[in-house]
Amino acid sequence: MNRRSKTVLVRAIAIMLMMPALVFAQSDDLRLPISLDADSTDYDGNSEMLVFRGLRLSQGSIGIEADEGRASKLDFQDSVWRFEGNVVIDVDNGHIECASADLRFLGHQLRYATIKGEPATFEVRRPGSEETTHAQAALLEYDLDSGVIQFTGDAVFTEGGNQIASSFIAYNINERRINAQSSGEGDDKVKITFTPSDNGTEETDQSQ
Prior knowledge:
Layout: H1 3-22, H2 27-30, E1 35-37, E2 40-44, E3 49-59, E4 62-71, E5 78-91, E6 94-106, E7 110-125, E8 132-143, E9 148-159, E10 162-172, E11 177-181, E12 191-193
């Protein structure tokens, strides 16, 4: 892999590493009081879930809106939450819009997340940077135990003039390894676009 390709992949890694925080893995925020209002609420005895319609939730820097929300408990200590319909998630440096989001928490920590959309869209601004990284995919899955974040279904990462597009992109946090794959059908390929800096020199790889 040449340096240009690696530079774009490093940018993709950057947004992947921010995803846990973007989907509220910020333990300090998860211990703050929760403010929740809804158009209606009830309890589903079959699934043993609290149901909220027209949900608006905030906790610290976290903000969530959805047509419907279901929760096993009214906290993020040890609970399962499912948001459906026009889901919007905001955190300090990021923004998500999706059709549904399933989140599992244990000990005030996000353990697993599944985010779906047509596509689901993500925006992250890196600290100290004015540039915003945009991403989209049909499915995002995050598993803390395996240390893997993966985007499936027309995954695209864009920042400035740089872009990587693939049917499947995954990052193993523990092994610090990124994997982009095509579907293997037709002319589908992993596609990388790199825009050189203004001075005409290539950007250097800053991965650790």
